[in-house]
Amino acid sequence: MIIDGKRSLAHVEKVAWIKPIEGADNIELIGVLGWTCIAKIGEFKEGDHCVYIEIDSKVPEKEWSEFLRAKKFKIKTMKLGKFNVISQGLALPVDFFDVEIPKQEGTDVTELLEIKYSNPDDQRRKSDGPNEIEEASNEIFESSWAKWLMKRSWGKDLMFYLFGTPKDVSKRFPTKFDYISKTDQERCENMPEILKDKTPFIRTQKCDGSSATYILEKVKSSFIKTEYEFYVCSRNMRIFRKDDDPLVDSNDYYWEMAEKYEIEENLEDYLKQNKDCKYVCWQGEICGPKIQGNPQGLHENHLFCFHMIDSEKGVFDIREAKKYWDIYDMESVPIESMTYILPDDFEEFKKTADGNYDSSVCEGQTDRIREGWVYYKTNDPSFSFKNISRKYLLKKDE
Q1: Residue of 209, 229, 205 lying closest to 218 (CA atoms)
Q2: Looking at the structure, do residues 107 and 194 belong to the same domain, yes or no?
Q3: Is there a contact between 311 and 278 (Cβ–Cβ < 8 Å)?
Q4: Which residues, 6+ apart, have CB-to-CB distance to 84 below 8 Å?
Q5: pTM of the predicted model, to two decimals?
Q6: Does 17 map to a domain?
Q7: How many domains is the chain partitioned into structurally?
Q8: What is the pLDDT of residues 286-345, one digit of tens each?
């Protein structure tokens, strides 16, 4: 669940329903939001508060978590073949832990319970980034005389003329752009009430890789010259070129994609044609042989775009964005439906996520199991959520 702008791996919720498992003497099914979990018979009553720990999590080695040692303390999607049921995540009573848990729905207890991502790569990619962040630091602009000049419009113009615009060298994901945010999307299980919304949605295939954000900002414009700042970002951090940052190693594919698709040049062309725009952004998923287990069976790295944003329009309707990506020879996630109506039944909805990827994102292959769908509201392109295939998760966790 996304709480206060970041992924929560453990949060307080209420038990929505309880159902027996045919043939089972000790366990039953419970519903938490849209998730289905296994619990001990009688452990919960309907309406009880619980701590729901999401899939992809790893709990700390504590006395309360000792029962998970055989599973290496990891929480995954499980199928109990004997009973033909699927369990996703773990629900535990609020008094089960060695710390006090507030009985308030939607409370994030990830840090309180010391829960992390089960996959080290996810922990690196999806956490908030390094503890020590480098801030903007052109030394010439830090001197006392430069600061004096920068407070005066003529002095600022003189400084920019002599030394150029100071470059932002912070490794934080940039937050100064009004419409640009990190690429986290909520899972449908955390918002089951969404099925009541019968507004048409655009349905696209979800590619499994590393999300990337590319921004070009117009920082200075005159009759003589226009200066730009190019941002290359992972999910949570700004990534500098390997030559400029010795810490960049496995993240080098972010710049590889920038060069492969000539993203900086293409975004500059867009800004030149749309002179009122102060910035433009493309976001997408980088997929390839060494990324997330390569579920699409790719032989080289690809960037599949899914968001376009600029300072004037905000977030584009993905159908309009695709017209620009096609002009600039960019690859994008396949649009499967432009007027999809959500069904009434949640289980029916979950089953629609199963299937295979379109060959356009698999280098022509047609037998690769699809991760799921992403849904964009036709009357609000900034609103989206995802439906991840249970079959995909079970295969991935084998």
Answers
A1: 229
A2: no
A3: yes
A4: none
A5: 0.82
A6: yes
A7: 2
A8: 999 999 999 999 999 999 999 999 999 999 999 999 999 999 999 999 999 999 999 999
